[in-house]
């Protein structure tokens, strides 16, 4: 009996332990409820490595695309325009004048102080090249000068100088010209062009001189501009050269050059006059006008400036607009024929003695 009871207990114990083993076997198979082993950690590392590799691959593709787009943009961008640079010294500097010391091309944001210095240096250079710059109209008194200046509109000074001798021989005073027969004056002035309008102006200003100023040319700007045919430009020519009173003559050459040199961007003559006057002392105004006008007539032409023969090339921001080859540029230089003063100016070399110093003007002394 005891033996049978013992066998029953042993059987029940085995029966009770068998479900636990089965459950344990299921959990091991499913992986749930068991602590992670080496296999699970390895699987996680593999997944992470795959993700990192794919991310790097995507990044490299993006970087390659960006580089390709930049390369395409560089290829599409137009090539930069080659800028002509003036030589450090003028290539065809006229004998007897000091060469420009350095290239001083102004930057786009040139300060007012730098502009003043550059402008004054250009004037000094031109003063050395054209030491005898003067009004190129022939005159003996203020009356002849004001008449000649009025006649010079839309024609050359040479043509006016060929015409005025016969005019002043027949009508030497304002009283004579005021009482002249218009048809006779027109015939004399015909070679100057616009001779009818000019006849009306010179006879009208002569009458105004007789009636309002006692036959004398006034020495004040406000009085001169009241005369028929006389504007600020003509008035400053008369004031500066007949009365020794400083003035800036803003003719077509002057306007063109001061804009080309970037002294001002103004286009109105009165505004140009004010802008340039602020750059120079008043005592320089008259000579400055002569220097600029002479340079514009002889070297810095409107269509084909002789850049390669220009004495101020290192100071000019417009260098390269004209011919830069020295030999070709020399052929563009224009010097009037004749004597000095009162006629046409010869090349500056004609006024330099053997030692390279300015010789006296022809006819002087």
Automatic annotation (TrEMBL):
- Biased composition (Basic and acidic residues) is annotated at 1-10
Cleavable signal peptide: none
What does this protein's UniProt record list under function?
DNA repair enzyme that has both DNA N-glycosylase activity and AP-lyase activity. The DNA N-glycosylase activity releases various damaged pyrimidines from DNA by cleaving the N-glycosidic bond, leaving an AP (apurinic/apyrimidinic) site. The AP-lyase activity cleaves the phosphodiester bond 3' to the AP site by a beta-elimination, leaving a 3'-terminal unsaturated sugar and a product with a terminal 5'-phosphate.
Query: Where in this chain does the record put each HhH-GPD domain?
Result: 151-298
**For the region Disordered, what residue ranges are annotated?**
1-112, 339-365
Regarding protein family, the annotation reads: Belongs to the Nth/MutY family.
* Protein name in UniProt: Endonuclease III
Quote the catalytic activity from the record: 2'-deoxyribonucleotide-(2'-deoxyribose 5'-phosphate)-2'-deoxyribonucleotide-DNA = a 3'-end 2'-deoxyribonucleotide-(2,3-dehydro-2,3-deoxyribose 5'-phosphate)-DNA + a 5'-end 5'-phospho-2'-deoxyribonucleoside-DNA + H(+)
What's the source species for this entry?
Streptomyces massasporeus
Specify whether Iron is a keyword of the entry. Answer: yes
User: What does the record give as cofactor?
Assistant: [4Fe-4S] cluster
